């Protein structure tokens, strides 16, 4: 579309694991970025779809990908109260203290959104 979102972005956002798998096996780029540099992994984290997120991770999605605001999928998961997504991402990161463009870490975003479980 005009935002350069791919069908993989859409499938990740709605959490359709069957379509995700089909698209990936058909050659879709798991690290495709839209106009604001969001990847399908960011989209799955934003919509709290743990199964979609795990499938993307299984197919080598970049856990360190940053959007135009320098936010990683962990920032997005924390801000959107996606506890299971946070739990899936954290073990794959060398550090969780990566700051976005405003200097906020995932923990800052979690607290700001009232997500104290993180």
From TrEMBL:
Concerning Gene3D superfamilies, the annotation shows: Ankyrin repeat-containing domain (1.25.40.20)
Give the UniProt keywords, A-Z. Answer: ANK repeat, Repeat
Task: Say if the entry is tagged with keyword Hydrolase.
Answer: no
Task: Spans of ANK repeats, please give.
Answer: 3-35, 39-68, 69-101, 102-118
SUPFAM superfamilies, per database record: Ankyrin repeat
* Keyword flag Transcription regulation: no
InterPro entries the record matches? Ank_Repeat/CDKN_Inhibitor, Ankyrin_rpt, Ankyrin_rpt-contain_sf
Which PANTHER family does this one have? Answer: ANK_REP_REGION DOMAIN-CONTAINING PROTEIN
Q: What is this protein called?
A: ANR52 phosphatase
């Amino acid at each position: 579309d005009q935002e350069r979102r791919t069908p993989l972005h859409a499938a990740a956002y709605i959490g359709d694991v069957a379509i995700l798998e089909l698209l990936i096996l058909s050659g879709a780029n798991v690290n495709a970025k839209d106009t604001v540099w969001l990847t399908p992994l960011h989209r799955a984290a934003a919509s709290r779809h743990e199964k979609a997120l795990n499938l993307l991770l299984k197919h080598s999605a970049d856990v360190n990908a940053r959007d135009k605001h320098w936010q990683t999928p962990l920032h997005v998961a924390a801000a959107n109260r996606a506890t299971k997504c946070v739990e899936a991402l954290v073990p794959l990161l060398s550090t969780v203290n990566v700051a976005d463009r405003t200097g906020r870490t995932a923990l800052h975003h979690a607290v700001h959104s009232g997500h104290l479980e993180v």
